[in-house]
Write a structure and sequence with these properties.
By secondary structure, the protein is of the alpha+beta class. The protein has a domain of 116 residues: Mlu1-box Binding Protein, DNA-binding Domain, CATH 3.10.260. The protein has seven helices and four strands. Helix 2 crosses helix 3 and helix 6 packs antiparallel against helix 7. The longest helix has 37 residues. It is globular, with a radius of gyration of 21 Å. The termini are far apart.
């Protein structure tokens, strides 16, 4: 039986993004989980920058940040960020607890690392299922192709339907 965590696992999983081919968490999301200001987290990281090589942490480009802002619908003027955010990989998140040094940081980090591990296991399970399906497809003839295609379609992540936004005039 596991002890209750300070932060729900689902909240952490929602904060994990894929950027530049890595699963990462942004500095503002981590600061909220640790219950510190984002600038305090960034200040602690910059004071210990030697602990954060490029594979532990990177700064988002202006284009990446703009795309994220559009995706999540955050504000674009007064208020908000004045600097590009940092993205921390799983190793960078693990290093953060030693930099921050609070008991909460240690406990939250344990939950975050478990979320990364759980995500990795889910992706691995899906990959193994796809391999088994491919092996079965090779084993049986074309009459089952429709069944295999339907199963593959069910395994695919759900797409978001494109809805038109704005005024639509009369059809001509």
């Amino acid at each position: 039986m596991s002890e209750p965590s300070l932060v729900p696992m689902e909240r952490i999983e929602r904060a994990i993004l894929v950027l530049r081919g890595h699963r990462v968490m942004l500095d503002a999301d981590l600061a909220a989980l640790y219950q510190v200001e984002t600038k305090a987290l960034v200040r602690a990281v910059t004071r210990n920058i030697e602990r954060f090589p490029a594979d532990f942490m990177f700064r988002l480009s202006a284009d990446e940040f703009e795309n994220l802002r559009r995706q999540f619908g955050t504000s674009s003027s007064w208020g908000g960020r004045r600097h590009l955010p940092y993205a921390f990989t799983e190793q960078g998140v693990a290093m953060l607890s030693s930099v921050l040094g609070s008991a909460r940081a240690v406990q939250v980090n344990i939950t975050i690392v478990r979320a990364f591990v759980r995500l990795r296991q889910m992706l691995q399970t899906n990959a193994e299922l796809a391999k088994k399906l491919a092996a079965l497809e090779q084993k049986y003839d074309a009459q089952f192709r429709v069944v295999f295609d339907a199963i593959r379609e069910l395994m695919a992540p759900p797409g978001t339907p494109k809805t038109r936004i704005g005024f639509r005039g009369e059809d001509r």
